[in-house]
TrEMBL record:
Keyword Coiled coil on entry: no
GO molecular function, a single term: methyltransferase activity
Location of the S-adenosylmethionine-dependent methyltransferase domain: 26-299
Protein name, entry field: 23S rRNA (Cytosine1962-C5)-methyltransferase
The keyword Repeat appears for this protein: no
Keywords from the UniProt entry: Methyltransferase, rRNA processing, S-adenosyl-L-methionine, Transferase
InterPro entries named among the record's database cross-references: SAM-dep_methyl-trfase, SAM-dependent_MTases_sf
A biological-process GO annotation: methylation
Highest taxon in the source lineage: Bacteria
Amino acid sequence: MTPAAIRTLHQHLLAALNPPPAEACRLFHGRGKCWLGLEQVSVDWLEGIVLVMLFRPPQDAVLAALQDMLGSLQQPVLLQLRYLPDCPALWLTGDAVEQWQIHENGLAYRLDLGTRQNSGLFLDMRHGRQWLRQRAAGKSVLNLFAYTCAFSVAAIAGGARQVVNLDMSRAALTRGRENHRLNRHDLSHVRFLGHDLFKSWGKLARLGPYDLIIIDPPSFQHGSFMLSRDYRKIFQRLPVLLSAQGQVLACCNDPDTSPDFLLAEAALAAPGLQFVQRLENPPEFAESDPDAGLKVLLFTYQQTPPP
């Protein structure tokens, strides 16, 4: 990262924050490799806080220059060093806070700041959540790898009849409950299952069938999920879980995995799934290689009629 690159970032942030966006969003997506010399930096606006994520270690002088530039901004700045173990974060300006509330499409979400690798809401999935909200009315929704239940919040806001959230992290599901309560949702329509997906097929089937299924796994989670090995296992189970004409949003955030992987796995494991479209990512997440960004593929299930 050169002095010229830091000046470029500074000018970009000044323009993006004049005036500050009304809701949380990405301000600068260096990881999309569209900005020479800034590939290791991404910046989010969290409605009063600027979160800067640094993904590769710079030289000491470069880090000092970057910190000086960020400290000149008018908003509180939190710098997260994602290249170090546990991803420590430094408050460059402003008072330190550990929890913060932001909004997306009018819905509220609570974030963790400075204490975890991820704050609790992946901003690149905004279009996916909006798509679900617009189509959830009266539907039964299964949210796999639910994390903090942002998809669930969007679904209930859109009038879903039922949402079942499954994630191995009970702490994440607890935050999911909080997110629903922030939006004054009726939790009698929401279930939270802190289970291992691959040991829970029977329970999920009993709670189904589902009109919409969201699959948004991590690329790798030690001891529980490996993208290249386990995505096919999920596709294989979908015919048992889906209603007639049910829909699936299959997501992948691994930059080294193209949409062709999901298409091939679906074709092999669940031939009844018909690919419909790939949802566009928010424009602020521009990528020099579109296949390196978030992939959100929509499928519709066509049940085979009995002979």
